[in-house]
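Dear colleague,

Thank you for sharing your sequence with our group. We've completed the structure prediction you requested, and as agreed, I am returning the results in plain text so they can be pasted directly into your records. Please verify that the sequence below matches your submission; if there's any discrepancy, let me know and we will rerun it promptly.
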Amino acid sequence: MPNKPILCLDFDGVLHSYTSGWKGADVIPNPPVDGAIAFLYDAIKYFDVQIFSSRSNQDGGIEAMETWLYKWEAVWREEQPAVPRTCLALCIKFPKEKPPAFLSIDDRALTFEGVFHNPKDLLTFRPWNRRGV
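Please find the predicted structure tokens below.
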């Protein structure tokens, strides 16, 4: 599919489960969110997948995300022997600046629907993995 639209994915809280919180741009200690690697395999068929994070422009951040992806793709592939061999890290871009995406997926964002929220109400926002905590 030539000229695929850009799908911009946040890293922490979308791909990386981020259960231990921030440990530094080059420290990524937790496993993926359930289904993340399978989602990436499917997404690269339709999109130019680009992972952009607060880690992206910090020393060692992109390298750490690529290493994390290699590791967890290998773990996932052991459980999925019938999946065609593809190296996700070669199919996915890691830009240093936020790309002009067709669509972005971020655990700490709201879709703007043309009406502004009360700023005070925004203080109660919780990402999906912190609701009920």
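Summary note from our side: The chain has one domain: 6-130.

Kind regards,
the structure core
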